[in-house]
Amino acid sequence: MNLASWALATATAYCLYRQVKFGQEDARLKQRLIANAEKIRNNNPVFYRSQRITGDTELVKHHLVFSILIMSFRMQTRWIIKNKEPRFGHALAASLYTLIYGWWGFPFGIYWTLVALWKNARGSTCVTVQDLLQPAPGKPTGFGDRFQRDFSKRVHSGFFVDQKPEGILPAEPVGKA
User: Per-residue pLDDT tens for 157-173?
Assistant: First the structure.
């Protein structure tokens, strides 16, 4: 193998490693928010990555696309605290990653690459901590409800439609009327 092949293989391995780390960091943030939900609602000091978190704190995720021939995968970076952590480097890295690895899949890789680049250029997905601290919606009970919810989610995600993330707190019990 020549040097360029080694560099590409190393960059790919590092990007996949970072995706695993992003998932771990998101899980840590979620646990921290759930554990301190009441403090955040009462505006008591809660810190994460040396930054104060309030209900109005905005979090941002950038979009990535990775493709291999007929398979394409859409991913996102970890949550970044808007105006308190550097976003430019994350947005640039996500866009470069998408430019290099995103367009290789047919037919969706090309489309999703363009959408991800557009979204990263426009500011990506933003959400407030208060939006995340809402109770998760209850699980649908009947087949029709489950089908409608799952189908709607798949259609929206297939076209990269931005939806606010669902709440992270446990769902409130749904009583039968």
Answer: 555 555 556 666 665 55
